[in-house]
Design brief:
This protein has no helices and ten strands. The chain is an all-beta fold. The strands form two sheets. It has a six-stranded mixed beta sheet with strand order 2-10-9-4-5-6, with no helix packed on it. Strands 1-3-8-7 form a four-stranded antiparallel beta sheet, with no helix packed on it.
Length: about 120
């Protein structure tokens, strides 16, 4: 049974930092690209960051480039997102998602959303 659980969301002041974690089980974590998505109230879901499966090449949305760092620990089947210099516009529900197919890079647009998300709120 596949399990994906996000954690680490919190209320933080602008300029602060948070680290999100995603623990997974039930699939071959290291074979899949992994990504963080977010969705703010009334807005479309957007991909924040991705890390590919084989080369572990990271990719970032322009809005978070230089502030967020994605990483994966294949031994622990976990994905992390270090978020620094947080802004009110980072406020959203954050979701961790594996790619639908194995051995993907971050050009893929097919993701599985199995987790419940973790809420990040940045106050001004």
């Amino acid at each position: 049974q596949v399990q994906v659980e996000e954690s680490g969301g919190d209320l933080v002041q602008a300029g602060g930092s948070l680290t999100l974690s995603c623990t997974t089980s039930g699939f071959a974590f290291d074979d899949y690209a992994m990504a963080w998505f977010r969705q703010a109230p009334g807005k479309k879901r957007e991909r924040v960051s991705c890390i590919s499966s084989i080369t572990q090449t990271p990719d970032y949305a322009d809005s978070v480039k230089g502030r967020f760092t994605i990483s994966r620990d294949n031994a622990k089947n976990t994905l992390s997102l270090q978020m620094n210099s947080l802004k009110p516009e980072d406020t959203a529900m954050y979701y961790c998602a594996p790619s639908q197919a194995q051995y993907q890079n971050c050009y893929t647009n097919a993701w599985n959303f199995w987790g419940q998300g973790t809420r990040v709120t940045v106050s001004s």
